[in-house]
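writing this on my phone so excuse typos. first protein, seq and then structure
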Amino acid sequence: MISNFARGGDGRSRDGDTGPMDTGRPLGGRYALERRIGGGGMGAIWLAVDLQLQRHVALKLIASEVVARTPEAHRLFEQEAQAVARLRHPHVVQVHDSGVDAGVPYIVMELLEGEDLETRLTQRGRLSPATVAALVTPVARALAAAHAAGLVHRDLKPANLFLAHVDGEEVVKVLDFGLARALVRSGEPVNAQAEGLTGTLRYMSPEQLRADPDLDARADLWSFAVVLYRALTGQFPYGPESVGGLLRGVFHPPTVAVSQLVPELGAAGDAFFLRALHPRPEQRFTSARELAAAFVSLVDAGRAAQPAKVLVVDDEPDVELLMRQRFRKHVREGVYTFVFARDGEEALEVLRQHPDTHAVLCDINMPRMDGLTFLSRVGEVDPLVKVVIVSAYGDLPNLRTAMNRGAFDFLVKPVDLDDLESTLAKTVRHVAELRRAVRSTEENALLRMFVHGGIVERVLPLVRGPGALAGEQVDATVAFLDVAGFTAVTRQHPPESALRRLNANFEVILPELETRGGVVDKFLGDAVMAVFQGEAHVARALDACLAVRQRLQALAWGGGDTSPYAHGVCMGVDTGPVVSGNVGAAGRGRLDHTVLGDVVNTAARLATVATRDQVLVSEALAARLADAFDCRPAGERHLSGQDAPPLVVREVVARHASASSVSSEDTSRQVTAPVAFTAKGPSWSTST
C-alpha cells in the first residue's frame, strides 16, 4: 500500500473536510489533491501531485472547522513543519514545503510506501528480539537528532514509526512531530495550562501524565521503552491500575517481567526495562543512543547463546520430518533450530519474522514462487543470510543460474546426509563471520566520529609499521577556539542542557575549520584544537576563525540572548615548527596522535587571554600577516604558565579587501614562515 503515516484513515472524505480540497483547484497553486489516504489528530493526509516537479507527495492539512474552532491549531501545524524541516535526517519523514491556502495550513512531505509499526504489530502480535533490535538503532538516531536540535517528540508510539520500502530495503521513519516542542531550560516560563495533557495515554511518561512543564528528552525515552516492550511481548508493560502510582512517582516494575514472555532476554532484559521505565527521569537512560546500545547488546548477548537458525524451504511434506530426525541431537544440544516454509513467497515472510536466520536450504521447483525467484529476492529481506540450493541430479542449467544469483552452495538430490551436515555447518560459520565483520565495521564507523579522518589516514601507516611511536617535525598552524564563559553554564544548567548548548556551537565551528583544511586534533572541555598544514596554512586557519566568528554572531543575533550561540568564542592562533606523532602507552593499547611544542602552547594560552570573539596572534606573526589581514593592537597579555615578560599581541579583525586577489602561493610565502617568540615556557602537551 502507499501511505504516509496513515492511521485510522478509511480513504473517504469526511464531514468537515471542506475548503481547498473541494474546489478542484491546486492547493497553494501547486498541489493537486487526489485522494485521502489517512489521518489522525487534527490532520488529514492526502495523496497529491506536485504539479511543478511532477511527483507524488503526501500532503497533511487541517479541516477548516478545526482551524476555526482551535486557534492553536494553526501554530501547532506550523510548529510541526518547522520542527521536521530542521531535522533533515534519513530516519525522519522529510518536509518539502508548507503553506496556507484559504485559511487552511498544509505541510507537503515525502510519500512513503509501506506500513507503520502499529499495523505490523496488529497483524503479528509480537516481533522477535532480533527484529526489534533492527528497529531500535534508526529510531534512536532520529530521536538523538531531534533532541540535539532541542525538540521532544512527546508522542512516540508504533503508529508514528513507519516501515518504508526504499530501494528494496525497509527503512524506519519517525513521523508526526505535531506535538513536538522545544526543550525548555530550567527557570524558563512555560504555559502548562495551554499545553495541557499531550500525547497518547498508553505511551505517556509519568511527567507527561502530570503535565509537567519541565519534561525533557527523557520523556521520549520512556515512550520508546514502552514501544520496545510491546513489540517484544505484544502487551503493554503497565495496566490502568498502575497510573496512580506512576503519577505519584512510585516505582512499579512491568506487570509481567519481560523474561517471562521472552525467555532469551533473561534477567538482563528485566533489568533493562526496570531502568528504561523508571518513573524518575534521572534514573533512566540518559540518551536515545545509550538506550539503543544497551538494548542491542542485550539482544546480541542472548543471540550468542542461542542456536543457529536454519530455514528449510520445500513443498515436500516429508522434508520437515527428515530434517528433524537427522538433526535431533543438534536441536537437543542447542546447536540448531529449524523453521520451515512451503515455497519462496512464504519463505520471504518467514525471514521477515526471523531476521536472525543464518542459513536457508531451498528447493528449486516449488509452487507460487520457485527457488530461483526466491534467491533473487532474498537480499531485499536479509542481505547477510546465505542460501544453499537443493536440486535434482543433472540439473546443471538451474544450478548455474542459482550460483550466478548468489547461492552460497548447492546440494544434489538425493541428498547425502553427511554432506548436508557439513555444508550446513560451513554456511552457518560463514554467516556468523559476516555478521561479526559487519558489527566491526559499524563500530569502526562509530569510532571514526571521535577521530578525524585526516588523523586516521596519518596514523594508520605508523601503527602498521615498527615505528608506531616515531615522530616528525612539520610546519603547521595551530588554532584554539574556546566557547566563552562556558564553565558558568555547566553550573547553571542540567548536564544534558549544557552539553546540547556546547555541541550546538561545535556543530557550527567544525565545518568552518574542516572546509578550510583544518584537522580537529581534539576537544579540550569547551575548546577545540585544530591543526592546519600545507599550502597557505596560516591564511586558511585565520579565515576559518573569522568565519566561525561571523557565523556564531549571525546565529546569536537571530536567536537572542537565550540562544546557545550567544556565548561567543575566544580564539588564539600561532604558527611554526611542531612535533607531530603518536603519544601514549602502546603496550596498554592507548595512543593519541597530536602535535607538541611552543606553537601549541602559545596558541592555547592566547585563547585563554582573548576576550569574546577575539582572534589573537603575536605581534611578530601579525607583522607577517600585514598584507593579507587587518591586525589591530590588543596590548600586552601575560600568558599563563610563562615566567617571561608579557607578550605583545594583536587582534585579527578581518581580511583586507585586496587580499582576495592574492594567490594562495603568494599568501603562503607571506605568512607561513616560522615565527620565533621571545615568550617561551616549559613544554606543555595538550594530549591528555
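second protein below, same order as before
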Amino acid sequence: MADTNIIPTQSIRRNAGILRTSLNFFLLLRIMGIRSILAKPFASLIDKQTRQWSLQPVAFQERIRRSILLKAAQTQFGKDHHFNELESYDDFKLSVPVKDYEALKPYFDLVAEGKPDILWPGKPTYLSKTSGTTSGTKYIPVTKDSIPNHINSARNALLSYVHESGNSAFLDDKLIFLSGSPELDQKGGINTGRLSGIVNHHVPAYLKGNQMPSYTTNCIEDWEEKLDKIIDETIGEKMSLISGIPPWVQMYFDRIQARTGKKIKDVFPDFSLFVYGGVNFEPYRVKLFESIGKKIDSIELYPASEGFIAYQDSQHEQGMLMLLNSGIFYEFIPADEYFNERPTRLSIEEVELGKNYALIINSNAGLWGYSIGDTVKFVSKNPYRIVVSGRIKHFISAFGEHVIGEEVEKAMKATMDQFPEVELVEFTVAPQVTPKEGLPHHEWLVEFANPPSDFMTFSLRLDEHLQELNVYYNDLITGNILRTLVITPLKRNSFIEYMKSQGKLGGQNKVPRLSNDRKIADLINKYSID
C-alpha cells in the first residue's frame, strides 16, 4: 500500500477505503477457509495498486523525495543540510553526502538518547538493534511513518504470490516465522529490539490465530533451547508456511528429522510455501529441498532494519520487485566507484541492467544519504527488479582481484551442478597471504552435508568457474601470483559452533560469505577436518 506521506492518485484514495473494508472482514470472520477466500480479491486490489506505481517509477520516486524532504525540513539534520532550499535531485546530491552508520553516528546517538526532531519529526516509535562492524551495536530508527513500509511490504509479498498463483489455502493453516525475540527494551524512552521482534508486534490480527511459535517460546533468547520448544509446538500441527533465514530453517529441519526420522513433507504434508531472506538462497537450495523431500514454492524477501527494499513478485521472473512507492527514495553508486572521493550518484531512471550498484537510501525513517552496505544488480527495468549481489565491504582483494560475494556463490552453484551428489551446509572464503608453503591463495572453508566424490576435481572445477567469473583472479592465477584455491573441509555443525561462540546463533545473524582478512577464517579453521 502506498505510504501515507506520498500524495496518492484519486484511484488509490478510493481503493484505500476498499482496503480497510477488506481488513475488517479478515478480523471479523474466523470460519475455517474464510481467510483464503477473502485473500483473493484483496490480492487483486494490491496487484492493481502495485501496477499503478510500478508503471510510473520515476514519478513516484520524485514524489517521495520531495515529500520526505518537506516533512524533515525542520529537523536538526534538515536544517544542517538546508532541506528547505533543495529543489532538484542535483541540489540534494550537493547538500547531502553519502555516509554509512559510523559517519552518521552523532545524529543516531542523539536519537538514541531520546532527543526529538533529529533525523525525523518527533521521536521514532522503535529503535531496531542490529550488529555493527566498527561501531558495535547499531540503533536504526523505525518511525510511525516508516512502519507501513516494513509491515505492508511483507503482507504484499504474500498477496502478490496469491494473485499470481491462485494459491491462498496456506493462509488457513499454521504459519511459522523463525525470528528474534519480540521482547523489547527501552533506550532513551524508545522501545528497542531486533527488527524481526518489532515486526512480530504488528502481525495482523487475522493471522495471529495461526501464527507460530507461541509468544512465550518466541521470547526465549537461547537459540537451541528455543528451537527445541518450537519443534515441540509445531510437530503435529498443520503447517503450511515456514519463514526464516535459510541456514536457521535448515537447522530446524535437521532437528525435526533427527527427532522423527522423516522428511519434512511427511511431518508437514501441507507445507507449501517457504519464505526467506537475508542471504542468497542458492547455496542452501539443494539441501533444503532434499530435507523437505518435495518441490514447493518460495518467496524471497529483502528486508533490512533500514527498510523493506524488495520482494519476489513472480514465481516465473528473475529478481525481486523494488519497492519504489514505500517511503524510500533510492540512490545507486556504481560499485567500482564506491570508495572514490566523489562517486557517481544515480537515481532510479539512470541505472543500467547487469551492473553492480551500492544501495543508498533516504527515507521517512530519517535516513539520509545512508549507505546500507549492500550491492544490488538490476535484472529488469519494466518493472524494476533486482538481485542482491553482495556486501560493499565483503570482498577479497588482497592482490587486486576484487572477488565479490556474487562471484563465489555463482562459482559454487556451477560446480555443485556438475557434482549432484554434493550437499552444502555453509561456507566462507578468505585470502591466505602467507601460507606455510607454496603461493598465496584463497581458502574456502566449507561444511558439506555430503562431500564431493572426487574432492580434487571439485576444487579444480570451482577454481575454474571463479576464474571465468573474475578476469582479475584469472590473471593472478595464470601469472603465478596466486595458486588455485584450497578447500578446507569442516566438521559437521562447525558454523553453528562458531556462531554460538560469537553469541550470534539463530535469529537474523549470518556468517559473512567472504572477508578480506582472516579474522573469521582463523576462528573457523579450528573446526577443520584433520
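DSSP finds 19 helices and 20 strands in the chain. thats all i got for now
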